Write a sequence for this structure.
C-alpha cells in the first residue's frame, strides 16, 4: 500500500511540475527543468517514472538533476521535438532503448559535465545523442554542480 501511495505522490509531483511551467497538459510543455529549489533542497527525484513525458511532442528541452539514477520505460517516448537535454549527473542514468524511442537522438544535444563526456559516450542509449561537455563543475563526492545544487 505504501508503494502505491508513493507512486501516486510521484505522479502528482510531476503534474505539479507541469502546472508550474504553465500547463496541465503535457502536450503543451515546451521546457522542463527538474532543478527548482524544492528539488535542489530535497534531492528527491531519483527516477523519471514510466511514461512521464510520453507523446509530449512540444517538449524541446529538459534538465535532469544529479539525483536521477534511472529513467523508466518510455519516459520520453515520442518526444519528437526534444532537441536539448542537460544532465547534471556525472554517472549516466540507467535507460533502455525504448525510453527515448521517437527522439532524434543524433540531432538532440546532450550536455553533460566535461568530466562525464567519456562515460556518456560509452553508455547504452546515451551514446546515440550528440554529446557535448558543458564545462560546468560537478563535485565528484556530492554530485553537486558548481552552484551547490
Amino acid at each position: 500500500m505504501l508503494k502505491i501511495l508513493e507512486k501516486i505522490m510521484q505522479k502528482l509531483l510531476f503534474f505539479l511540475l507541469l502546472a508550474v511551467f504553465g500547463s496541465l497538459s503535457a502536450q503543451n510543455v515546451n521546457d522542463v527543468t527538474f532543478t527548482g529549489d524544492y528539488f535542489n533542497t530535497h534531492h528527491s527525484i531519483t527516477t523519471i517514472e514510466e511514461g512521464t513525458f510520453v507523446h509530449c511532442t512540444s517538449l524541446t528541452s529538459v534538465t535532469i538533476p544529479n539525483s536521477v539514477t534511472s529513467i523508466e520505460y518510455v519516459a520520453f517516448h515520442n518526444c519528437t521535438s526534444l532537441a536539448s537535454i542537460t544532465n547534471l549527473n556525472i554517472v549516466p542514468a540507467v535507460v533502455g532503448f525504448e525510453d527515448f524511442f521517437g527522439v532524434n537522438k543524433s540531432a538532440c544535444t546532450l550536455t553533460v559535465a566535461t568530466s562525464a563526456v567519456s562515460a556518456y559516450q560509452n553508455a547504452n542509449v546515451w551514446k546515440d545523442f550528440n554529446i557535448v561537455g558543458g564545462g560546468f563543475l560537478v563535485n565528484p563526492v556530492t554530485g553537486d554542480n558548481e552552484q551547490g545544487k
